[in-house]
Amino acid sequence: MTEQAAQETAQAMTAEEITILLDDIFPQLNQGRRCYFIDWVKNREAVLRLKADERHLRPGGTVSGPTMMGLADFAAYVVILAEIGPVALAVTTSLNINFLMKPAPGDMLAHVRTLKMGKRLVVVEVDMWSEGQEDLVAHATATYSIPPQ
Q: Checking CA distances to 53, which of 28, 37, 79, 128 falls within 20 to 30 Å?
C-alpha cells in the first residue's frame, strides 16, 4: 500500500460521527438553531459551512470578525477529530487570522487542511470565503495541542 493510499484510509471519524460528537460535547454550539455544518471531510481536508444569521453580523450587515475566527477554530477542530478520533480535550494553542476583505452577509465556507500532524501538535490552514464569491475573505492558521493518550 502506498503512503498516499494509507493516508486516504486512515480517517478515524466521518462527518456524521463528528457532528454527533460535537452535538454531545458542545450543545451550546448550535443553540437555538444549527448554524455549523460539515460539507465533507476526507484526506486531512474538510469544507465547513456557517449559515450566518443575525447573531453573526456586525453593524453594516457583514459577518463579524469573531464569527470568522470561530469558524476557523471550528474547522480546525473538525479536521483534527477526523484524523485522531474523538479526543474532546484537543485544544487550540494558537490561532492567527488575516482578514482580507469584507465578507458578504449569508453563508460562509471554510476549506481547512492539515499542514503538519505531530504526536502532540497539529498545524492547520483555513481559507474562508462568502458563498457565491471566489475571493477569500480571510485566511487563518491554527495550532492544536493533542493530549497524551
A: 79
CB 91 within 8 A of CB 73: no
Given the C-alpha cell 477526523, which residue does it identify? 82
d(CA 118, CA 104): 36
What does the pLDDT look like over 82-126, one tens digit per residue? Answer: 999 999 899 999 999 999 999 987 899 999 999 999 999 999 999
CA distances from 69 to 52, 74, 108 (A): 13, 9, 12
Confidence of residue 27 (pLDDT cuts 50, 70, 90): confident
Of 18-22, 101-105, 135-139, 141-145, least confident by mean pLDDT is: 101-105
- The b-or-e profile of 20-44 (16+ CB within 10 A means b, else e) is ebbeeeeeeeeeeeebbebeebeeb
- Whole-angstrom distance, CA of residue 93 vs CA of residue 91: 6
Q: What angle do CA 66, 64, 132 make, to 5 degrees?
A: 120
